Structure prediction request, 179 residues.
Amino acid sequence: MLLLFMVTLSSTLIEQPDLYRFNQLQTNQFMIVNDGVMGGKSKSELIINNTSATFSGVVSTENNGGFASVRILWPFNAEDSEGKQLLSIKVNGDGHQYQLRLRTNNSFDGAAYRHTFDTLKGQDTVVTVPLEAFKATFRGRELSDQPALEFGNVKQMGILIAEKQTGPFIIKLNELSLH
Prediction:
């Protein structure tokens, strides 16, 4: 399934080299990864409409769980990502805190570069993150032995909700851009 997911998204055409609209996603171009991979009970889904992709569900700490996430392959090619220093994501949130997670490989598990951001309930927000603000982590622990992140090396991106924020959540993903 992961291979099909990777091949499908990598063949998607992008309208502008430095702007991605989440409504371009197809149902076979993303992957939900919740705490069920370790026995947890959190549930989530991603629904795509003509203006955005809505990531929603319920986070539960039952059975040692506590996170929900969605992953897509990086929608920018390496040439268009090269030299960019800022990432902006336009979302409409629910007041919860989320993590934007970038991976430099196509593996299911391993190190990720994360940046935590807050949302405002029911309001569009543009979160702009400098490249150096992403911190290398593995299962919640910061890593000091990873190379500096470059957008040209990113293979996957994800949105994760955790940090004991139990209950329902909803975030609309509108646009992703590099500057």
The first strand starts at residue 19 and ends at 21. The chain is about 5% helix and 45% strand. The radius of gyration is 15 Å.
